[in-house]
Amino acid sequence: MASPVGIFAEELVDVIQYYLGWLLTIFKDVLDLILESVGGILTFPDPVPFIFALILISLLITKRLVLSLLIGAAFYIIEWMGYWDSAMVTLSMVLVATLVAVLIAVPLGIRASSGEKANPVIKALMDFMQTMPAFVYLIPAVIFFGLGAVPGVIATVIFAMPPVVRLTNLGIRQVPPEMNEVADAFGSTGWQKLTKVQLPIALPSIMAGVNQCIMLSLSMVVIAAMIGGGGLGGDIVNALSTIDVAVGFEAGLAVVLIAMTLDRLTQSFRENGA
Amino acid sequence: MSSGIMKRRPLKAADDKVHDFLTTGIGRVKALIRGSVKGFAKEHRPRSKNGRTAKAIFAEAQSPTDEDGNEIMIQVKKLSKIYGRRPEEALALLREGKDKGEVQSMTSNNVGLYDVSFDIRKGEMFVLMGLSGSGKSTLERCMNRLIEPTSGQVFIDGLDFTSLNDEDLRIARREKMSMVFQNFGLLPHRNVKDNVAYGLEIQGIPESERLERAVASIELVGLAGYGDRMPSDLSGGMKQRVGLARALATDPDILFMDEAFSALDPLIRGDMQDELIRIQSELGKTVIFVTHDLDEALKLGDRIALMKDGRIVQIGTAEEILQNPADEYVDRFVKEVDRSKILTANLFMRKPKNILYETQGPRTALRMMDNCDRDDMLVIDGEKRLIGMARSDGILRAMNAGDRDISGIVSDVPSVRPDTPMSEVVQIMVTTDFPIPVADDDGILLGMISPSAAAETLRNGGGE
Ligand SMILES: Nc1ncnc2c1ncn2[C@@H]1O[C@H](COP(=O)(O)OP(=O)(O)OP(=O)(O)O)[C@@H](O)[C@H]1O
Ligand SMILES: [Mg+2]
């Protein structure tokens, strides 16, 4: 059977569940609430008003008319193919996962950038998180949180977080030394230096990380459907079990359209700066 | 194919137009919202408690005076800075009389500064000068503790600056001193006004007041009206004016400037030097100016400290240093400048215009000579190396002999180097009636000097 390494991992999961079960429950409830409210907001308007709102938001962010109309068209195609509800579930999972990942990853990245050298612990952890096959996260996620969207989101957060940590760290390290001298020479506190000098200069790099994080979340959301995450991933998993090419392709196309939309939006956010 | 391009262009153009329109429009709306939100916040924010000020920190100290009764702003006492892991070891070796190079090879520690002491008077423009690596930046940064000295002390206004705790150090840096950087150090995400206001923002001064003071400071450096530009829209000279405005905005007593004008081209640099002199005479700041350029030092410095290998070799006014160099090093430094001031050939040469290639045939050559109404021309080879000179009579000879090219009739010609002093050029010139070619060490023709240029030199008395 399993070697001591596997047995250790198993014991660890048991211990966590036994002693921290209550914490996990709270965690799950909170995430559930967030997921539900985001999903509720997304499905509250009918598709057509939603699409108009999306075009407007896209105009505000990208300031490109043609691109915004194309984004509207992409979402109209999703609705026309009949995947609107699934798409909204997937979208809310991606948004929540990205939000949680960024909230954890940016402070971690800042922390990692503060030492002389790259923080070896954080670096190893990131390597581990990113290269461990994504399926593996599903196992403890299911044990801790049962089936459904929440364990899917948690597995997604773990899988999609590393690029944000890396690129935040890198972005801050690449701030020209003269800029740090400027902050110090004018008597900035550490916090002022971080928020007024380092983070704004590192912002393009951080946004590149967020962009990657969103893309990874989308790819993970499909995998998470295997534990009942639902959404477009659920449609794809069903199509696989019934060998339904048509549904598989349509749902896959919907994922691609969402991915391209989110990519263009975050990318132009990065180009236009804050 | 072409119709496709034709069709796409108007679409792209229209899209760009919409983009520009939206960018400005949304920018305006954002500014409006930000303005009203800030206005609301300002009214409803509790007044921040007034913390410790630089005045309080420096209150106890008594600023000393020198023997002539001048107030002293900064005293540097036995300051040393060793870069590396075992500074004590390096200091011990230095005390034994070893020099920077020896210490470096024996301990792998790098000596930045060793045992430097001097005073800077209030309102003085004090220049630190020396070759690259002599420790100028290290010394300047030890004075505001961007670099922590290994040993020794710095007194500012009579207060031991080196012993201040972090909090007091920050306050002193905010209110007492500021810095101008070689590469300007402007924050790329802020416009000119907000860059200049940075120091005031750090002090916690409310937005309306700090923008007011920023605008005043921007006007002081002659950039009125540029407040809303981004740094990337400005030329180098303007950027450094912004850097100067930012440093002046907090109304500090001391201004540190590290090679502040070195990245600018010579003309702008001269302007900035004049500007600094004007501002300093108006405001009476104490300025510590680092440069490796003696001309700049002589122009700006009330006093100049010459540095070498982490030590100061001489301190004095420009006159004192020029007339009475303290040692051979200073002497060489000063001579270096004198030599560069001598007029050299490269200053007077013109681009070589009418030249022949040695592979050209005699008929072509003769025609070119006719065209520019000359009867002698310089000849070069395919790699632009100077071969010599061809005369029309020689070319005629070659033509009659049926030569394929003119390489047979090229005669030698005296040439000079770009750094040859004009005095020598003139001596050669009187022996020929021909423009003197200027060639580099590889023989490549760079230009030529005509007799009229030489005459100019003689008239101005530069050729002696
Ligand atoms: N961070 C550092 N670590 C190690 N050695 C350093 C460091 N900074 C400077 N030094 C060394 O200290 C000496 C003085 O350097 P410093 O930068 O003060 O010279 P400088 O006179 O300002 O030269 P430059 O004209 O090139 O700016 C040099 O030998 C340099 O190599
Ligand atoms: Mg320097």
Describe the model.
- The complex is a heterodimer of chains A (274) and B (464).
- By secondary structure, chain A is mainly α.
- Chain A has a single domain (4-273), classed as MetI-like (MetI-like fold).
- Chain A is 86% helix and 0% strand.
- In chain A, helix 1 (4-43) crosses helix 4 and helix 11 runs antiparallel to helix 12.
- By secondary structure, chain B is an alpha/beta fold.
- Chain B is built from 18 helices and 15 strands.
- In chain B, the strands form four sheets. Chain B has a six-stranded mixed sheet with strand order 6-7-8-3-9-10, sandwiched between helices.
- In chain B, a hairpin with a 2-residue loop joins strand 9 and strand 10.
- In chain B, helix 9 (207-220) packs across helix 10 (236-249), helix 15 (362-371) packs antiparallel against helix 16 (392-401) and helix 17 crosses helix 18 (451-459).
- Chain B is extended, with a radius of gyration of 31 Å.
- The chains are: A mainly alpha (274), B alpha/beta (464).
- Chains A and B meet through helix 9 and helix 10 of A and helix 1, helix 6, strand 6 and helix 8 of B.
- Bound molecules: adenosine-5'-triphosphate and magnesium ion.
- Magnesium ion binds next to helix 5 of chain B.
List the helices and strands and how they pair.
The complex is a heterodimer of chains A (274) and B (464).
Chain A: H1 4-43, H2 47-62, H3 65-81, H4 84-113, H5 120-131, H6 134-145, H7 149-160, H8 162-173, H9 177-185, H10 190-224, H11 231-242, H12 245-272
Helix pairs in contact in A: 1-4, 1-6, 2-3, 3-12, 4-7, 4-8, 4-10, 4-11, 5-8, 6-7, 7-10, 8-10, 9-10, 10-11, 10-12, 11-12
Chain B: H1 2-44, H2 54-59, E1 72-83, H3 87-95, H4 100-107, E2 110-121, E3 125-130, H5 136-143, E4 151-156, E5 159-160, H6 166-176, E6 177-180, H7 192-196, H8 198-202, H9 207-220, H10 236-249, E7 254-258, H11 266-283, E8 286-291, H12 294-300, E9 303-308, E10 311-316, H13 318-323, H14 328-341, E11 355-357, H15 362-371, E12 376-380, E13 386-391, H16 392-401, H17 422-429, E14 436-439, E15 445-449, H18 451-459
Parallel strand pairs in B: 3-8, 3-9, 6-7, 7-8, 11-12
Antiparallel strand pairs in B: 1-2, 1-4, 4-5, 9-10, 12-13, 14-15
Helix pairs in contact in B: 3-4, 9-10, 15-16, 17-18
The structure holds adenosine-5'-triphosphate (ATP) and magnesium ion (MG).
Adenosine-5'-triphosphate binds at residues 83, 110, 112, 130, 132-138, 292 of chain B.
